[in-house]
């Protein structure tokens, strides 16, 4: 009889690369029966770029690529974290009345896999309710990021209550998955008893990729993912593009960009011939879109966010997977990885300026052998240790451990 697995999702799109395309599909391939409970916005599921699926996926439940999808309406109301903490401390399940919890209880799954802070809260309620009915289930917290971030812009009271909630929830969690060594250490300091494993945001190994980065006269710097006026450092990147082109030819390739609900990115006329914008591409087409890239760009504010300081984002491994060296500022876990495997260049500032990046790109432009060496190392480390095929074995081992516990 197949083991019943239920993914609990509070915020992510149902086609999220980590949740659906990698973890859920891998478990399905392994023989697990996988159900995902995912949120709607105004009655519609939403894509990775924020587009609402108005004419498709309208059923409350359906099967998609072998995985059962159950849906509920995402609440827009503010979370009363003090009340939620009280519910957690009650040691009862009766106060957990939100839709995600109630749908989860109905599944009577063997293993629940929560993907956010809020969905972990629902997982606690589900686990308690099933235990009260005589059904023992296991609960995984897949911590994609650090929450609560002590440096985030929120009231001291809110951060304190969320930290207390996390401490309470981890005591009832059976296994923790996270994405970086620093987040692992952070969570381990809160709860040293719960086993924890890192599963990186790695893609499956790209079978067709272009080697020879840095061989052309011009350089192409790529950005993959959401880029708007808040994320992706768009204005800074345009400034980098303008300053570099005063000395040598640099082009920018944006794979993704602004979400469909946002105003399109505005590129000055004199830089339009320097920018290639693919828009959002299918997950399986990212390697093709990245074939002409020489450098991959990541810029995060690591001074005002531990999440950013500890980040190992999807795009980081996507660049490496396609033999594209990473250019980033001093974010601890990416910095450690790059120094260990010599697969990129780090600007050693928690907040780097456009001029800092221009200096780095100028160096790489003048030292093409460095680009080629970093490119080889990038691909080698993905092949040997970090592609999804390696991460998948960690996922299977976690599930086997919980089934044997």
Description:
The chain has 405 residues and is of the alpha/beta class. It has two domains: 4-202 and 388-404, 3-Layer(aba) Sandwich (Rossmann fold), CATH 3.40.50.2000; 219-386, Glycogen Phosphorylase B (Rossmann fold), CATH 3.40.50.2000. Helix content is 39%, strand content 18%. It is built from 14 helices and 14 strands. It has helices at residues 17-30, 81-89, 99-107, 117-132, 156-170, 181-190, 234-244, 286-289, 306-309, 314-321, 332-341, 354-366, 368-386, 388-404, and strands at 4-8, 33-40, 61-64, 67-73, 111-114, 138-143, 175-178, 196-198, 219-226, 250-257, 275-279, 295-298, 326-329, 344-347. The strands form two sheets. The protein has an eight-stranded mixed beta sheet, with helices on both faces. Strands 11-10-9-12-13-14 form a six-stranded parallel beta sheet, with helices on both faces. Helix 1 crosses helix 14 (388-404) and helix 3 (99-107) packs across helix 4 (117-132). The longest helix has 19 residues, at 368-386. The chain is globular and about 70 Å long. The two termini are 18 Å apart. The mean pLDDT is 94.
Structure summarized in a few sentences:
With 405 residues, the chain is of the alpha/beta class. Helices cover 39% and strands 18% of the residues. The protein has 14 helices and 14 strands.
